[in-house]
Write a structure and sequence with these properties.
The complex is a heterotetramer of chains A (about 325), B (about 700), C (about 220) and D (about 525). Chain C is an all-alpha fold and about 220 residues long. Helices cover about 75% and strands about 0% of the residues of chain C. Chain C is globular. The chains are: A mainly alpha (about 325), B mainly alpha (about 700), C mainly alpha (about 220), D mainly alpha (about 525).
Chain lengths: ~325, ~700, ~220, ~525
């Protein structure tokens, strides 16, 4: 297909991702509520909240600087840009030529960097707590994440996302042992990255358990909306990535597969992501939040598993 | 590129720096002194850039031999500027230019207290010596300029010599670097033993037929020697002492450039004199990989708990040097297996990171300098809120932080991308042990990257954001225009090197004469590409920063457009108000997080490394009731593992031996005569009864 | 009756060694001086013998000089210098090495010198004087040195120095029958001046420290 | 006496050079007489400076002669000068010259401070000239017996000079110096006599002409000498003259003597006298290596050299007294010289000779600077001297330069020769010894810096010192001392970058004397 068409398609894909992200959050909340024997709000509740926040007035602490006010925009831009490089529904992203898996990680890290700064900027102790905890977790996530990427790129070849996804699709259902280990470690890491239990409790408002929530505590109105939205976008992107790399079932092996196959593939991806989200939510109801200084143990597990994966690949 | 144009350029540069060193001596008024010394320095550095750039563009080696001969024919003072030398001269010039501009303003902060004149001329000598080190082509002249560099930098480190601590760190620095020089000298002289000549040309000529043992010996000696100057663990201990002691513009040069000169020596030896050729040499590469990754980790760990801004930056230099050496080591490993393409990739990564680190570390130290000038303290726990007081400094410090944290879209990210790609390419090494160990080494690098960004959240956040933590920070003022200008140059370099990588990559490629294995990486505006090809799988991973920037821009535009459209319904207003204090009344600056508390979780996680020694003092209202405390104060300091567990014991041992030896001087003439008697008889016995 | 040369030489050699033992054994300054005087006389005698055998007038002169300078002038000088000092400072009360042990060590040193000479110089065709006197002179040298090492008194060290000089002189004359005269003269003059200077120093010492104990000369050291 | 007369009547080489040889010796002698006659301070100073200048001039003439037409002898072979001798002659005259200049201001200041009186001064200048005379005689004498006499004479004279201040420390130092040096020289005499015996017994012509003590004849038939004798003879000479040259473990007198002598004398002692002694050792080294082959003598030289460096390193590291530290560094540098000779080869010998010259330049500079400092601070204890760069900026700078030079930092001259020494060591495959030397150099550097940096920088303790922040009061002869120091600093820097052509040729010729031709590299 022509490059223009490709760009249009992938723009649509990104639009879909951004549009569906809050829905995913809603679904997770719903599942969580149900597993906790609650009715729970509608799955579209996140959309209502966003639209409400979008038109609300803002209260900004006077001890903040331009960092605080620009952070939501930077975060949003970085996250959405990252989405452009990830083949979410299609086994293809035209921008894979411009950036790869490492760039995606980098962009998400940029977003986190500014979020952490904003946490400090308001000069409140809550923001400080959030930032300092996030500093620890994010820096410990890094090695596990990179080791996973290492294994994946060894098994599927390179870091170019399109060719990774295609290669994964080619492998079909059977999964290499190294990939299995990588999957486990990546799952743990995504929990940490998206701030789910047992690392962080997205639903909390207790300073003892807050990480991400503490950093964005000072935000209100449109800024808060942007932050929440980017958070769910990030969540969707990462889950989709995991699905496409490790559970490629139903994903066509090439963009020339024809519209129906592609459509089916997209639907399959959507279903798998929702399923995965449900699993994550279910896990959240089963486990309690871990004490902050037990979190490193979990991340260490992730690293160790990934290392085993690498050993399995080479031997 | 006509040679005569070159041969006028180099003397011109030398002359300019010498002028800059001498001119200030004739003036009396500090203002004039700083102009007289730093303007020539700036021009000279600019010319250095020109010279190196023209060498790089012309793809030809420039030789220049002066008539001066030290003592023996092969000790003549001759210069040889090939691509490698030119590339490092480029680094020197690129950093020295903004720093000289910056110094114009910065030097005034010393006027009255110290002699600006001394600062100016020493700085000129310092830069000149570094340029000449890279340019020179003989063992003697190399050591000459090398030690001149150390000497000048030492004098700059003890510039504020009233402080005993500065003197002590100066001595540590000079002694450590002298030890390094000893190793370098040994390495070169072992080569001399092989070739019988002191000129680098002969070393190059005989690089091929170097005995394996000799090669290993030279390699290890050079690694220790140059590693000491570059601040490689465990020879790094001088670095966090010396850089904070020196004036900030000097720290910028030392950390940005001088460490690279150490790297230059390492590169020169590995690529020119002791070239790895057989798989037997791979372990040398692994040695560098291990040293590099441990340096990276150790450096960033210490930086993450440091609250003195300049010390933190110094530790980050250790970290980045580690990353550079890691890349170099990888390329050595690949070279020794004859994997040319990925060897080039790893070398590209390492050199690119050298360039980047030079630029952004220079920028950061300049920023730290203007913060120092503005607030009068280097302790971050006394800063805060400077983003409002010194907006420009804040902006550029932020740029530097993003760059050094390896985040897109700035230059740090590109070189770290390349380094990671080089690590990922290690699957081509036909040796499982090496594959695995390189893979595990990548953990250290990844952890380093993560901790680095965390640390710079702390560095920037604590010093520039939230509220002032002290009166000094309250009254901080923005730096003068010349300093801003210097930082602007460096900052824009950071951006340029980030979004237009092909400039640097093509320079490096021509400098190091790569066969165009990754050709598209050097084409203008072309993406950086790394090929993958193994059992059936083929793919090309690529990164095109201009594209990324374009995309980011359009996304941003789209978002703003969306906001405009979606928000048009109701006009929202933004009300400033106090930070929510949780209902406890007004927040003082004491309630904010400090640098120390911010890094507390990390310190706790890496307890085994820092072995923090924490003392808690509780003050009670009454001894009967220990539940109600009047005050609780916590003191926590981390230990310098290397000094306490490595250097102090070694030093103690040496001192013990020396102490025993010197006691020979008993003051008793009887013992003196006894020595003579024993010596005579011993020597007689030796000569008479020896075969 | 005609006494064979070698007997005379051996006799003188024994005399020299005995006189050296005298220095080692005696504890008082007068004792050392008399032993030294005796030694110098024997030395002059043996020099005269060599002179008689070789018939070189320079060596006669040397013998006479030795007799005059070493047996008369130097002892006088030393007595003159030290008569101001109280007697208890002229007695080696407790040497660093006990007398008996010193005697043993001196014997060992003599053995060493004989061994050395025979190990090395046997190849060179030495004449009878050399063969007799070289070991003796070497042992004089070493014993003198040992005396200086093992005693506390400055005076004792001067005496040791003198013994060494005697050994030196004997060595020179025995080995090379008369190196060119001005050298001999120069050497003798140097020795004389050296002794005079040391005498002067002794005088200064007796004024500043009013003792010759080495213990008062240990302030210059490293710690 | 007859031989002497004959020598005077028929000079071996009837050329102007031999006359110059005699006059250069006569100049200080005449000066000595004049100083003794006119018992007057100003007068003595004038005479001494003039004679120093004259000696300098004539020495340069002699050097020119040597360069132009090789060696020549005088006084029927008693006196003799070749490139090696000339090379040692230069520092004697040069340091004598600067020391004379410096003496005027230094002793003048001592006089004003009431440390010395006119009688002392006269004796000082007598001793000075006599000292120069005896030292000049050492490299000029071909007859080794004469050389021994000269060296012994230097001992006696310098003892006098050290006794100038008749305090307890001075007397103690003088006594130790006298005893140890005399013993050493007696050992040396044993060796010399053995050499001459070996010579006379081996070769008939030497024995016939009665010139068995002449170095020229020794080296001429070095091959014929009896190796057994030469072995022990060389050991005796090495230990004996080594004592005078301050090689460990016979160096023990040196720190005391150099530490307690008046500063100009210390400069002469360690800048020149040591050279004379090591010169003697090397003369016999040449003969011995001619007989035994270079292996054994080189081994001995290396052993003693490393020992000296080691002991110097230890003592420098813990030193408290400035002048003693300098003295120990002299031990170190003599060790380096003997090490270089031990390494041998063209470069090694070149380095050794160059190092002799360099040390003779840098060490007096250091002594002069430290003398000025200790006069100002009225102590030699380094821990009490702080911030010289503030109280006396010029002297502070000189102290820094000299200290760095002595410690072997480029771009100063000592580094050049040390580098050459190491080059010869590694080039000759003597990895162990060379690496040890490198290690010890580093330790010494550290020890030196440990004392030097706080002295030069830092903030002065004495409150009065900062107020009068200037280069001492402008008393008489200050200009002279500045001139002396300036000359030395210039030399230290210039010789660090390159060795002038004449000096190079001279050293090359001197290396030829060692039987080492064919410049390597």
């Amino acid at each position: 297909m022509t490059s223009l068409a490709a760009d249009v398609v992938s723009a649509l894909q990104v639009g879909a991702v951004v549009a569906l992200a809050p829905l995913l959050t809603g679904i997770m909340r719903k599942v969580k509520a149900r597993t906790q024997k609650r009715m729970g709000a509608s799955v579209f509740q996140p959309y209502y909240e966003l639209s409400k926040l979008w038109v609300k007035d803002e209260v900004v602490s006077e001890s903040t600087s331009w960092i605080f006010s620009s952070t939501p925009w930077i975060v949003a831009v970085a996250t959405v840009t990252a989405a452009f490089f990830v083949p979410v529904f299609l086994p293809f992203s035209p921008f894979s030529a411009a950036g790869d898996l490492l760039l995606v990680v980098g962009l998400l890290a940029l977003a986190r960097f500014f979020t952490m700064l904003a946490g400090i900027d308001a000069a409140s102790a809550f923001g400080g707590i959030g930032t300092s905890r996030e500093m620890m977790i994010s820096s410990l996530v890094e090695p596990g994440l990179f080791l996973t990427i290492f294994v994946v790129s060894l098994t599927l070849g390179g870091t170019n996302l399109t060719s990774l996804v295609v290669a994964a699709a080619k492998t079909g259902v059977v999964i290499a042992p190294s990939m299995l280990f990588a999957l486990i470690s990546l799952f743990v890491i995504i929990l940490a990255e998206t701030g789910r239990l047992p690392f962080d409790n997205p639903a909390t408002h207790l300073e003892l358990t807050m990480v991400h929530e503490a950093m964005v505590l000072e935000y209100s109105g449109r800024s808060l909306a942007l932050l929440e939205w980017s958070q769910s976008t990030k969540q969707l992107v990462l889950l989709a990535l995991l699905v496409n790399l490790f559970l490629p079932l139903g994903m066509p092996t090439s963009i020339e597969a024809g519209v129906t196959m592609l459509g089916l593939g997209s639907v399959a991806v959507l279903l798998k992501v929702c399923l995965l989200a449900a699993v994550v939510a279910y896990v959240e109801t089963r486990v309690a939040k871990w004490r902050l200084f037990r979190v490193p143990d979990l991340l260490a597990v992730a690293i160790a598993v990934a290392m085993v994966g690498m050993v399995f690949f080479y031997l | 590129m006509t040679p005569d144009y070159f041969s006028t350029l180099l003397p011109a540069i030398v002359a300019l720096f010498i002028l800059g060193a001498l001119l200030p001596l004739v003036f009396r008024d500090p203002r004039r002194e700083s102009i007289a010394s730093f303007v020539p320095a700036a021009v000279g550095s600019l010319l250095t850039v020109v010279l190196s750039a023209s060498v790089l563009l012309s793809h030809q080696v420039f030789r220049f031999s002066s008539p001066v001969v030290a003592a023996l024919p092969s000790m003549s003072l001759s210069f040889y500027i090939d691509g490698i030398a030119a590339f490092f001269m480029l680094i020197i010039g690129l950093v020295a230019t903004p720093v000289s501009v910056y110094s114009l303003g910065y030097a005034n902060s010393y006027s009255g207290k110290h002699s600006v004149r001394a600062l100016g001329s020493l700085l000129n000598v310092f830069v000149l010596s570094m340029v000449l080190v890279t340019a020179t082509n003989g063992v003697f002249s190399f050591l000459l300029f090398w030690e001149l560099m150390s000497l000048a930098s030492f004098l700059l480190v003890v510039y504020e010599h009233e402080k005993e601590t500065n003197l002590r760190s100066g001595i540590t620095y000079l002694v450590m670097t002298h030890i390094g020089t000893a190793f370098i000298m040994a390495a070169f002289l072992v080569l001399y033993f092989q070739t019988g000549s002191l000129s680098f040309d002969s070393f190059r000529a005989s690089a091929g037929n170097l005995g394996p043992f000799t090669k290993d010996l030279v390699f290890v000696l050079a690694l220790v020697g140059f590693g000491t100057k570059a601040g490689l663990v465990p020879m790094h201990i001088w670095l966090p002492k010396a850089h904070p002691s020196a004036p900030s513009n000097v720290s910028a040069l030392m950390s940005g450039v001088m460490l690279k000169v150490g790297i230059y020596g390492l590169v020169r030896v590995t690529l020119d004199f002791a070239v790895p050729s057989s798989p037997g040499d791979a372990w040398l590469g692994m040695l560098m990989v291990v040293a590099g990754s441990s340096s990276a980790l150790v450096g960033v760990l210490y930086a993450s708990v440091e609250h003195d801004i300049k010390r933190a930056l110094a530790y980050h230099s250790v970290e980045n040097i580690g990353i550079i050496v890691l890349g170099l080591g990888l390329s050595v490993v690949f070279m020794s297996y004859g994997l040319e393409t990925i060897a080039a990739l790893a070398l590209l990564a390492s050199m690119y990171h050298s360039l980047n680190h030079a630029v952004f570390k220079g920028l950061l130290f300049m920023g730290a300098g203007s913060v120092l000038m503005g607030t009068g303290t280097a302790d971050m726990n006394k800063m805060g809120g400077l983003a409002k007081k010194m907006p420009w400094t804040a902006l550029f410090f932020l740029v530097g932080s993003i760059a050094i944290a390896g985040l897109p879209p700035l230059n740090g990210f590109v070189s770290e991308w390349l380094t990671l790609q080089a690590l990922l390419s290690s699957y081509q090494v036909p040796n499982v042990v090496l594959q695995l160990s390189i893979g595990f080494a990548s953990i250290a690098l990844a952890l380093t990257v993560g901790l680095a960004s965390a640390t710079f959240v702390k560095l920037f956040g604590i010093s520039f954001l939230s509220r002032p933590r002290s009166q000094a920070a309250e009254e901080a003022t923005e730096a003068p225009v010349s300093m801003i200008a210097g930082m602007t140059i460096a900052g824009s370099l950071c951006v340029a090197l980030g979004v237009l990588p092909f400039v640097a990559t093509s320079a490096i490629a021509s400098g190091f004469g790569f066969d165009m294995g990754l050709v598209s990486s050097y084409a203008p505006f072309g993406p950086l590409t790394v090929g993958y090809a193994a059992d059936g799988l083929r793919s090309v991973s690529s990164l095109s920063m201009p594209m990324v920037l374009l995309l980011t821009g359009s996304v941003g535009a789209a978002l703003l457009g969306f906001a405009a459209v979606a928000g048009s319904g109701k006009k929202t207003v933004t009300r400033p108000y106090v930070t929510w204090e949780g209902g406890f009344g007004a927040l003082g600056e004491r309630t904010q997080y400090t640098a120390t508390s911010l890094s507390q979780p990390i310190r706790t996680v890496f307890k085994w490394f820092f072995r923090p020694h924490t003392t808690v003092e509780r003050d009670f209202f009454s001894d009967s009731n220990h539940l109600i405390k009047k005050s609780v104060s916590v003191y926590s300091e981390t230990r310098e593992v290397f000094e306490d567990d490595l250097y102090s014991p070694a030093l103690r041992g040496v001192v013990y031996v020396l102490d025993r030896m010197r006691r020979l001087q008993t003051g008793k003439i009887n013992s003196y005569l006894l020595y003579m008697m024993v010596a005579t008889i011993a020597l007689l016995v030796l000569v008479v009864f020896q075969p | 009756m005609q006494v064979p040369l070698s007997e005379i030489l051996t006799l003188t050699a024994v005399g020299l060694l005995l006189s050296t033992f005298g220095v080692v054994v005696r504890r008082s300054f007068e004792g050392w001086l008399s032993a030294y005087r005796y030694q110098s006389v024997v030395l002059a005698g043996s020099t005269a013998v060599i002179a008689y055998e070789t018939g070189l007038w320079e060596i006669y002169a040397a013998a006479v000089l030795t007799l005059v300078v070493k047996a008369v002038i130097i002892p006088r000088l030393l007595v003159r210098v030290t008569d101001s000092v109280k007697d208890e400072f002229k007695i080696e009360a407790n040497p660093l090495v006990s007398i008996r042990l010193s005697l043993l060590i001196s014997a060992l040193l003599i053995a060493l010198s004989y061994g050395l000479i025979h190990e090395t110089l046997i190849s060179a065709n030495l004449d009878v004087y050399a063969l007799t006197y070289l070991p003796v002179s070497l042992s004089l040298f070493f014993i003198g040195l040992f005396v200086m090492v093992s005693r506390r008194m400055a005076l004792n060290q001067v005496v040791g120095l003198l013994i060494i000089e005697n050994g030196l002189f004997l060595f020179t004359t025995a080995l090379t029958q008369g190196v060119s005269l001005i050298i001999e003269v120069g050497i003798l003059a140097d020795i004389l001046v050296g002794v005079m200077i040391s005498a002067l120093l002794l005088l200064r010492m007796s004024q500043t420290f009013d003792s010759f104990d080495m213990a008062s000369l240990e302030s210059l050291k490293d710690d | 006496m007859s031989t002497l007369a004959a020598g005077l009547s028929s000079g071996a080489v009837p050329s102007g050079w031999s006359i110059l040889v005699l006059t250069v010796l006569l100049t200080p002698a005449v000066a000595l007489v004049l100083v003794t006659l006119g018992r007057n301070r100003r007068y003595a100073e004038l005479i001494t400076v003039c004679s120093a200048i004259l000696v300098m001039a004539q020495t340069l003439g002699l050097v020119a002669g040597v360069i132009s037409q090789g060696e020549f002898s005088a006084l029927s072979g008693y006196l003799y000068l070749d490139a090696f001798g000339a090379l040692v002659l230069i520092p004697i005259a040069g340091v004598g010259f600067v020391a004379a200049l410096y003496s005027v201001s230094y002793m003048g200041r001592q006089y004003e401070r009431g440390v010395v009186d006119d009688r002392h001064l006269t004796r000082y200048y007598q001793g000075f000239n006599c000292f120069v005379l005896t030292m000049l005689l050492v490299p000029l004498s071909n007859n080794m017996g004469l050389m021994w006499v000269a060296i012994e004479a230097t001992t006696l004279v310098s003892v006098f000079m050290i006794m100038l201040y008749t305090n307890q420390r001075a007397i103690e130092a003088a006594w130790k110096y006298l005893i140890v040096a005399t013993i050493g020289l007696s050992l040396a005499l044993l060796g010399i006599v053995l050499f001459s015996y070996a010579n006379t017994s081996a070769s008939s012509p030497a024995a016939a002409s009665g010139s068995g003590l002449n170095w020229t004849s020794m080296v001429a038939d070095a091959k014929l000498l009896d190796p057994g004798i030469v072995k022990i003879a060389f050991v005796f000479v090495l230990v004996g003259l080594g004592t005078k040259a301050g090689l460990a473990p016979m160096h023990t007198w040196l720190p005391d003597a150099h530490g307690e002598a008046p500063t100009p004398v210390s400069a002469l002692l360690s800048g020149v006298l040591l050279n004379c002694a090591i010169y003697g050792v090397l003369r016999f080294y040449i003969v011995a290596s001619g007989t035994l082959g270079a292996a054994l003598p080189s081994e001995l030289m290396i052993i003693l050299g490393l020992l000296s460096m080691g002991i110097a390193a230890a003592s420098i590291y813990f030193q408290k007294d400035m002048k003693r530290m300098l003295a120990f560094s002299s031990v170190e540098h003599m060790g380096i010289v003997s090490l270089a000779v031990g390494f041998g080869g063209f470069i090694g010998l070149f380095a050794a000779l160059l190092h002799i010259v360099n040390h003779a330049i840098a060490k007096p500079l250091m002594f002069f600077a430290s003398g000025a400092v200790s006069q100002r601070y009225e102590t030699k204890v380094m821990s009490e001297i702080r911030g010289v760069i503030k109280t006396m900026p010029l002297t502070g700078a000189v102290l820094l330069v000299g200290g760095l030079a002595i410690a072997g930092m480029p771009p100063f001259n000592i580094f050049l020769s040390e580098f050459l020494v190491l080059t010869s060591g590694f080039g000759g495959g003597q990895f162990v010894a060379a690496s040890l030397m490198l290690l010890l150099l580093v330790v010494i550097f550290a020890g030196f810096l440990r004392h030097l940096v706080p002295m030069v920088f830092g903030s002065p303790k004495g409150p009065g010192l900062v107020l009068t922040a200037s280069e001492g009061p402008g008393e008489r002869g200050a200009g002279l001392s500045v001139l002396a120091i300036g000359v030395l600093v210039a030399l230290v820097v210039v010789l660090g970058l390159y060795v002038p052509q004449p000096l190079q040729t001279l050293i090359r010729d001197a290396v030829q004397v060692f039987g080492q031709g064919a410049p390597a590299l």
